[in-house]
Each structure stands twice: as C-alpha cells, then as structure tokens.
Amino acid sequence: MLVSAKEMLKKARAGHYAVGQFNINNLEWAKSILLTAQEMNSPVILGVSEGAGKYMCGYTTVVGMVNGMINELGITVPVALHLDHGSYEGAKKCIAAGFSSVMFDGSHYPIEENIAKTTELVGICNELGLSLEAEVGAIGGEEDGVVGGGEVADPDECKMIADLGVTMLAAGIGNIHGKYPENWAGLRFDVLEAISKKVGEDMPLVLHGGTGIPADMIKTAISLGVSKINVNTECQLSFAAATREYIEAGKDLQGKGFDPRKLLAPGCEAIKATVREKIELFGSANKA
Ligand code: 13P
User: What is the CATH number of the domain that holds 124?
Assistant: First the structure.
C-alpha cells in the first residue's frame, strides 16, 4: 500500500538522515528502485515528473503499475508515490489518480499566488491524508521541461510557506537539476542554516538536484535539516552507460541477447547500484 511521505520524513528529520526520492520513467525504473529499497529495508519515495507521467500513459497507469508491483513483489517498506514539480492542475490530477504525495511547485509565481495555491492544496491533502511538498526559490537547470533560474530562497518566504502546513519544503540553495557545471559554487549552507532556523526543527527540508553533489556536502545538508533528497539524472546516466556497454560489446547479437529482458538487465542492475549507493549515503538503510 502506498503511504504519505509524512511519517517517513518526520522520522528522518528527527533521526538526522534523509529519504531518497528516485524518479521513475518506466516499469524497469520502478521495479529496480522498489527492489533495492526493500533489500536495504529503507523507506523510499518514487518521484514522477509531469513529463514522465505522460510518457507512462498517465497518472492512473502509474498508480496501477506501482500498486501492482508493491503487491506482486512483496514490498513491505514504506513507499510514497510523489508528483515531482507539479503544476496546480497536475497536483489535482495526481490526487484524483491515487498518488500518496504531491509537490506543488509554485516557485515561479509571485509569493502571494504561491501562498494562495499552496493553501488550497494543503486543505485538500490534509483531508485525504496525503503529503504535500512546496517550493520557494527555483531550483536551477532544467528537468523535463521545468526550467528554473536557480534563485536562492528567501528564508522569510520559506517561513511563510512552511507555516501554511505543508509536509516538506524545497528551497533553492544553489542546487541544480542535472549535472553540475565545472564552475559550480556549491550549496549555500549559510542560506540553508538560516532557512532551517526560521522554519523550525520539525519541517523536513528537501534537496533537489541530488545528482553529483559530493558526499560531504550531502552530509552537511542533512545535518542542517535536509530530510529528503531527490535523484533523477544519476540513475539515467548509469542506466545509459550500462546499456551502451552491453551493446558495444555486441551482446545483443549473441544468442537471444536482443530479448528486452536481457538487453535492459544491465541497465536495471546499474540503477540498483546507484540507488543502493544513495541509500547508504543518505543514511536511510534499515529505517523502514
Ligand atoms: P537530478 O536530476 O539532478 O538528480 O535532480 C532530481 C530532482 O531534483 C528531481 O526533482
């Protein structure tokens, strides 16, 4: 059964570790992530961008697939199915489809409008027992067509949004979706600390753009209140590299190596290795 992310993130915030949000793109992604979370006895959040939702034939298809996998694979660790960077309309669609968690990314609206729309969604999510993530200060880079300028969040605005009763808060602190450029200045821990102080110890903070952030920065971010870390690109890169290696070695031409179950297997193993590594780093193993 899918669960809201509320309990798992509350525990993570109090226990000084973070739960990974791993974005899914298809059956192979969802299966690899669920099996790894189960193997490591870790809570997990499956992220679905609006683009990936469309690709997977809509939100109801995603809900059906993930619920089916949880039953058929015997997954017992807590799993939240979460809309990533949702629009206001997208959030409502996911709620209707049976997601257990949604992100409303109102960071590109003026703060008053972000507050008004977030407030409405807080009411709906509370009534249904779902978790809601809000965002202040856009995450840099591009993810599935969602482009952010990389503004650093204003701690006072974070406090305003946190006080609306959201479950978790994503704040821009110099993080970027996708690979970090050579000249990246790193995370703004001064801002993260100020946000953490403003919103208080009970508010789980979310770090987007988890791909390529060095381990020491991840640890510092967790120590300052980050309880959820999103990873997307890194699984895509490891899947692509393993698939490339399989094909370049000509393995698809040997025997029945072209069978999709064989062709996609190295990529799935690569996703599992990435997820395993992140769960270790985030400290959520054996916290289910
Ligand atoms: P990366 O693709 O950089 O890992 O970011 C993922 C993310 O933040 C999803 O919202």
Answer: 3.20.20.70
